[in-house]
Amino acid sequence: MAVAPSHGPGPFAITKAKIFLVVSLAFTWWLAHIFPHYQPMIRAEFKSRIGEARQKIPSIKVDWHTTEDPRAAFNASKVALLIEPRPIPHLVPQLLHMVTVVPPDWRFLFIGTAKSVASVGRAVAIKHQQVIGKLDLMIMPEPWEIESKESVYRMLTDMRFYNEFLPDVEWILKYEHDSILCANSESSLNDWLDWSWAGAPRSPDDRFSGNGGLSLRRVSAIRRVLEFQARYNDTEAEDEWFGKRLWVLPGEKVAAGKNGVLAVEDVYIEQPMGYHVRDGGRGLRDEVWKNHNQRKKIFEYCPELSLIMDMKLERERCHGDDREGSVHPTEQELQLERAKAAAEEAKKKLAEEEAKKKAEEEARKKEEEKKKQQEQEEARKKEEEEKKKAEEQKKAEEEKKKADEEKKKADEEEKQAAQDEAKKILADEAANGQSQDSTPPATEPPAADPNNSQPAGSTDPPSSTEEYADGLGREEVHDQQS
């Protein structure tokens, strides 16, 4: 079998790859040959550059065991206070925002439970604020409690709380999880330090505008109240309790109406320092939040509200939403509603017809039942009448039978009396006959018998006693046979 000749280059053919390999090897050998001659110069150049860099680095001394308290860099008389027992997710961004908005000389104190403190304290930014002395996280020791609103009210109206935990504090900015200060506010919190109490009014003419959800309080004024007054447990909230007493306390500057309004809650004002949205937006007043344009103005002025409010995106808005709390149906929804209403009407009409038919059927059944009952009642009455009639007839027969028996008994007694009388007469006649046989009778005619129908002068002799007795005997025998 013949093999086809090969037309490829041989092993000694010159190609681009071989040329590039030869040139690379030659260049490497050349560098290796000249490098020892330049090595001292390269080393000297590196050393000079490193020396210049060392000269430019500033000298730093680290004191690992500092004795200074970092909190001393801040004003101990000004504290922003947040009390929250629940580990709410937005507490960390809310705290960090308040740290940037509140004047830098203020310190922050967060009082919580083990869960809420652990939730807040694990954030790196919070740890940094703790290290620099800006923020303290505190769990209240026993017997103090913050689990309920009432326990917080009791703590804030107790002089021991201010003496033990806030001994050097003169001003307190108390805020809650649903309140926030606006970064666009032109006024500073330090501009309000001459007020004894400033907050949010509940009505335009509220004599004490001190709603405690976001309020500035002067501790010296609070101490004045607590020196002569004590709050009863389970009564009004602590801000209302303080307000009634501070409002009449001489020398104290207290917010009233729209004068001294620090925040907005139930009464709208333009560009306040902050907002208190009750329960995170679940208890909003229509006077403040219902109007779309006003609400848009609020969010443009204070976009930080989105941190604490339960909000949705614009694309999540319901169809037909008029942006003022009402949802109007679309045309398609209206058609569906009409169809649904028509179906409901037809269903209702059918149900009414069925109910009417059922009622008629029940009425017919009741009528039949009533008729049947009447027939049964009539039959029962008829049966009772027949039974009564039979009983009366039976009673009459018994009475008749009894009367017959009594009559028969009377006849028997009468017959027995007649027999006894006849026997007596026979006995008397027999006795008289014996006496006549011995003595002849007188010739006087017998006396007339009143029971005898014959005249007194009749000469017919009476029937003999033997015939009379014989008649009585035959009658007695006849009665016995019958």
Automatic annotation (TrEMBL):
Residues annotated as transmembrane: 19-38
DUF5672 domain span: 136-276
Any Pfam family: DUF5672
Keywords: Membrane, Transmembrane, Transmembrane helix
Keyword Metal-binding belongs to the record: no
Compositionally skewed regions (Polar residues) per UniProt: 451-466
Sequence segments annotated as region (Disordered): 319-482
Basic and acidic residues composition-biased segments: 335-427, 472-482
Protein name per Swiss-Prot or TrEMBL: DUF5672 domain-containing protein
